[in-house]
Amino acid sequence: MKLPRFLSIVPASVPALCLFYLLTACESPLPVVNYPDLRFNHLPVIELNVARIEVVEQFRSPLRAPNVEHELPLAPAKAMRTWAQDRLRAVGNTGIARFIIMDASVKAEALVKKKGLKAAFTLDQAARYDARLEAKLEVENTGGLSKGFATATATRTRTLPERISLNDRDDILYRFVEAASNDFDKTMTANIDRHLSSFKSAP
Question: Which CATH number, 3.40.50, 1.10.8, 3.30.160, 3.30.1150, labels domain 46-199?
Fold first, then answer.
């Protein structure tokens, strides 16, 4: 018997991300969708008066529920690394800048569904996703005589309804992380202008 490629009603204790896979075991695999890398190279380069820029990834995914960032079509950590590569440029002769990824998590939670007669006539939200992107840009010249830093945090929340297809789920979650990454870009850019203006270009 072929089961439909949609969600069914399951206990709230089932992990959120698993809700979207329970009824697909008897079907043929879905076509692979290749999502594009999120790039920021269409935006102006931020020139820093340092000799080199390092990307430091402090965040480590636990690779287990409720964290699901490692299972998404666009991982926040990858988007943040790309942001640093595309937008930051070292144009000085001395000094160092460190772009430190402190948080790049997405957590999923199954939501309680309605019961009884009312449930038959309503479409519940099956899961909630919470994204948090946080990073610090530290800049110092040779010898550490002059230092500065800027931080940025972006958070977003998104719920997904029950009976959503797997492809639609992935499309929505890709756009979800993309939006959070764009929020991060705007906040970090503004904070660099505010707190690191003296480091922004070579003399």
Answer: 3.30.160
132-188 confidence digits (pLDDT tens) = 999 999 999 876 778 999 999 999 999 999 889 999 999 999 999 999 999 999 999
Residue 180 region by backbone torsions, left for phi larger than 0, else alpha for psi between -120 and 50, else beta = alpha
Helices 166-195 + 76-87 axis angle, to 10: 40
What are the helix (H) ranges across the chain?
76-87, 166-195
| 117 vs 176: CA distance, rounded Å | 33
CA distance 195 to 190: 9
| Tokens representing residue 142 in the block | 């040779």
